[in-house]
Queue: 4 jobs
Job 1
Amino acid sequence: MNIRFPNNDFTSFEAPMRAEIDLDGLEVVQGAVPQHLDGGFFRLIGDRKWPSFVENDVFMLNEDGMASCFYFKDGRVNFRMRYVRTPRFVAEEKAGRALFGQYRNPFSDDSSVAGLSRGTANVTMLVHGGKLLAMKEDSPAIEMNPFTLETIGEYDWDGKVTATAITAHPKIDSRTGELVFFGYCAAGPATTDIAYYEADSNGRIIHEAWFHAPYTCMVHDIMVTQNYVVFPITPLRHELEWIQRHEPAFKWDYTKEVYLGVLPRKGRGDQIRWFKGPNQCHGHTIGAYDDGRYIYADNTFSKRSFFRFFPNIDGSQIEPAHTMPYAKRVVIDMEGQGDGFTEQPLFEYPGELPRIDTRFETVPYSFATMNLLDVPGQERVGGGFQWIATLDVSGKGPSKILYAGHNCSIGEPQFVPAHDEAAEGEGYIMAVVGRHEQMRSELLILDASDINAPPVATVALPFRLRSTGHGYWYGGRQLRGETNLLGAW
Ligand code: V55
Ligand code: FE
């Protein structure tokens, strides 16, 4: 059979790599890698092994997960990249062709794979309870070896997690090391069931609750504080009839309100309180905390879904400005009588892939970093994410912006603390830059307090890395299972 990828947006720099890589001793072309850095910068990339048999496939979201890691030790950087051998990947490898069809549509699959997990494990890599998991929100987590990136298999927390799908954006409580996570469409495709779980710092399930969302939609991320969990229900709708008719699995609905579902931490499903607000689309959570009465939850929101391949439900043309995400703070008064919430803007430029110093997950914080899509007035050549910004969500400190360069893309920034006792935001920002003219990528290690200073180090790769996917830093002690708290090493 002729293997041929379609001629679409994903050619050139973004063409599938389809290659697994081991490269020890990456070249440091500028500066020096800090000697004391011990750990791994894990990034999950989408990379289709076999061309889709579906026309106009949702490429970015429906690609095989490719686990990658920059391992740091003694000032050296080693790189490894391996496909996540999901049940889907293994079945397709055996067949030597794609067997799974449209994004989130089991009715479009080859009959030989009926009932097999459709998960691609292409969103986030989590280390918790001494395990490395590759995650995708429509399927179970996949366990991998944190050092070799070999796939171990599906992981269900010793049978305690029965939801058919687990979020790719769990949160680790920075005080307790507990893992807070959920699944939506947790009782099967296009169901309103949401399952909420917590695991203790050793990875044992200590809480489970189920409830129903007011309507079916994508629930990509959550907000977690010391006392509350907030589930964002925003109308990137998902209906069984659509997938039965082979229409896009998700469509944007301008008519529905937003519902923020608040549960006390470790609360029961029937304790959920819904707070309503105007139509908009949730992107990612930045950070969240509460003071006992008010929940402060920072997120990116756009007027409609960022993804232009999901059409408007009414068939209207997509307004490009409506896809632009902006950082906003949501405030919920848990002692008030109302069922609404207030919002305030956090940053003037559109951006996504926000991250914080993870040691401040669930507690008051101020440091954030994100990719920007546009900086009005700044000259640029190229498109998409070309800047990173650091900002102070408390509004007290200045924000900084770094342009990656003409025809250069930049990936999600990752904060790495300088050492375990480092103050919030004291440390490094790692980000992969794609140099499209050279068809090569670089890993930048920046001073988080001044991203405009010359990089601490520039690590060169002799190949390109596709620009999708989230990243996470895990310290060596975490990787070796010696601690479950997020830290430097
Ligand atoms: C996102 C990414 C996905 C997905 C759903 O918002 C949402 C990002 C790469 O896969 O399936
Ligand atoms: Fe995400």
Job 2
Amino acid sequence: MKNILVVGGAGYIGSHVVKMLKAQGYNPVVYDNLSKGHPQAVQDVILEEGDLGDKTRLAEVFQKHHIEAVMHFAAFIEVGESVKEPSKYYHNNVSSVLNLLDCMVEHQIFYFVFSSTAATFGEPIHPKISETHPQNPINPYGNTKLMVEKILEDFDHAYGLKSVALRYFNASGADESGQIGESHTPETHLIPLVLQAAAGKRESIKVFGNDYPTPDGTCVRDYVHVNDLARAHILALEKMEKENKSLRYNLGSGSGFSVAELINQAKAITGIDFKVEYQARRAGDPAVLVADPAKAQAELGWTPQYDLKQIIATAWNWEKNRRF
Ligand code: UDP
């Protein structure tokens, strides 16, 4: 199974997966409407422009490239926006994916890799979140991703469509080549915002809350390098195909760092003492989100290779020389 359609392959995580697929001998084809993605991120891989809702275009691309499996990255990802504009999220993150899945079944393509999220778990009830943790999302973004996970269970049962759902914790860092990296408009993620403050592109970094029940009062998150995530996608794709079964994994390092700790590390790595402003909490942020990656380690042999310092260093390399 070598011909992989990467939907949303011009985006942050998708572009890193495409680069790794190619390096490992696969034939990735990117399908992207470029509403958020960057054509420069696709590099030397075929880019087919199109919408997920366009069945005719999807069918054409499936046939032209003899697609055998689909990886999906084309989702809206901002929690705050999802609360204000849920309709947009349910249309793009659920209806369009359902359209894609219908189209796959019509064309007898039965392997799907889905970008899910730690946000499907909601408020953690255990210190580290494993695959058996209850899934009770607390925002529309998390709801959309959980809905697709449910749709995928039903599609396996009814049509034999096998899927991998990968629940990412905090995807971060950039490819060491400096050719691709994180670029969202607007940017809402902590590491790029911190590094833009270091680079003088922002006046300060605003920390959302220092009254959480954590050691220093700021939120704790589990940061995982985008190339470690990319590796997990390929390992999971191969296991799904070999065993012909659907799989679910939580992808994080298993270690949590607070926002304040991360900012201090960024100051040390960049050598720049940028301004930090403390503000009120952001709605929808759990105090602590840390993965239990034991299942991915045991079943995929996956262990993250980048620590937080390397994540910040690669993101800083990208920030200083960003191409898009
Ligand atoms: N955060 C912050 N200031 C910002 C952006 C994020 O303090 O400008 C905090 C946010 O409240 C959360 C952590 O940084 O505790 C990580 O947020 P991010 O949006 O990067 O990822 P999330 O955990 O929401 O997926």
Job 3
Amino acid sequence: MVTILITGSSGQIGSDLIPALVRKYGKSSVIASDITFSDRDYDVEKIRLDVTKKEDIETVIKEKSVTDIFHLGAILSASAEKHPYEAFFVNGNGTLNVMEAAAKYSVNRIIIPSSIAVFGNDIAKERVKPMDSTHPTTMYGITKVLSELLAQYYTSTYGISVRGMRFPGIISYETPPMAGTTDYAVDMFIHAVNHENYKCYLKPDTPLPMMYFPDAIDALVKIFEAEERSLRYRMEYNVSAFTFTPSELYSLIKEYYPDFSVEYEPDYRQNIAESWPHSLDYFDAVKDWGYSPRFSLNDTVKDMIVNLERIRKENDMKKTLTQNP
Ligand code: SER
């Protein structure tokens, strides 16, 4: 029997993870928590919880007999560069608070997403390995390196099993773009489907590693269920599925929407993207806990368009119904 607490449950990963955990463990085993909730109506218990408040986390763990935590509450890279102090406070202190509260009440596992942002400019950018050096140039990256180090510390000192993996950009139609640097990709899809042109904040030739959200959710569930003895690292596993540049994505989307056009107006996010790897070596994740991405870039583009078109039609229908009840 598990009781899983999710922090930051309304964010990009949380909204996709809840249904997967409910399917596997039943809805009474999943508790969603965040500082605010979106309109999406998850059929699980929801608790307002701020990860910067350690006592509040302790109360939830104790009162709900939480056995495991997916700690997803964090400020993403683009927002973090605008508000570095707040980002350290939420991502750094928040992670410390979750680990400390979990240690106090003997939680079994904490799963935390790390990021390609842990890497910096001192390494070769292609096929980056888990143990390549991590000297990030962004505050977001600094907080993720800190989380990885805390994961090792709390696992070896307190016997909680802290686990995770470094995600690349995650492409999803379920959540709107949420202040990540890689989110231009989702935004480009949304503009194309809505027949609007798009202004991209990255240069056309900026390669970044990416993956489709079902593969990210599958990875989280797999590492959650992995045998402790099969894990060589805590949160240092790399995962990804493919790499593309904004202009490559544009060409693929244009095949479906020939009139779609993109302008490029790079801003501060270009520096963030340029400090990150172009591709990752994820072989250790395959070997240790069976990571196996199913979606290629072409599958992803097709599936995104089918689902965003469906959502657009549903929204149009809702609008018509409210205008002509
Ligand atoms: N997708 C994240 C971001 O862009 C990277 O971890 O912030």
Job 4
Amino acid sequence: MDNLITIDGPGGSGKGTIAKLLAAKLGWNILDSGALYRLIALISENIKNTDPDKIGLELKDRKIIFELVDDQYHLFFNGKDVSDHIRSEEIGTKASDLAHNQQIRNLIKTTQRSFYDPNIGLIADGRDMGSVVFPTAGIKIYLDATIEERAKRRQIQLKEKGLKVNMPNLISSLEERDLKDKNRKVSPLLIPEGAKVIDSTNLSTDEVVNIVMDLT
Ligand code: DC
């Protein structure tokens, strides 16, 4: 899988931004796996049920597409743009809770793998892309940054979306999510074997992209 780059790391480390820039440079597709967990959290809220079987039924035969809209990747679920609905911190926390469930993870593993088209190439970002979903990826990245820097970046993203932000709450929500994502039994967030670790705290997005491009 030479034309497959995985980018794992904690929330706010810049995975989405770097994935988007790399996809544009290389002309490859993108998989924002966190958005899929957020979609599951949204569905679970809508049907007021966390049963993986019930959620699975809602996902069956539905189209999931990432498309560029005004230079941002939007998630379309069965033709409906759900991007704004899935981006709140509440949905992020719920996604992190549901992501503990092996049945939920299995539910979307096949969907995640279907995003890889060997004729095009893929940048996949998330928590277990290099370790579980695409262990044979040609290039694996683990992107990190300090909690303060990640909260600052998340604050900018949320403000741009017109969402209210309270910094201390944002930091504790990110910390809580890190703890859950790193300590869960199934597919925890970890540095995948063979991954290049990049601390992006003091790096510009271009600098991070150049480090990855040098590996291609
Ligand atoms: O990257 P994000 O903040 O959009 O992800 C939301 C949650 O989804 C994250 O806290 C944990 C879960 N997740 C996961 O368990 N595995 C992935 N590959 C991606 C996200």
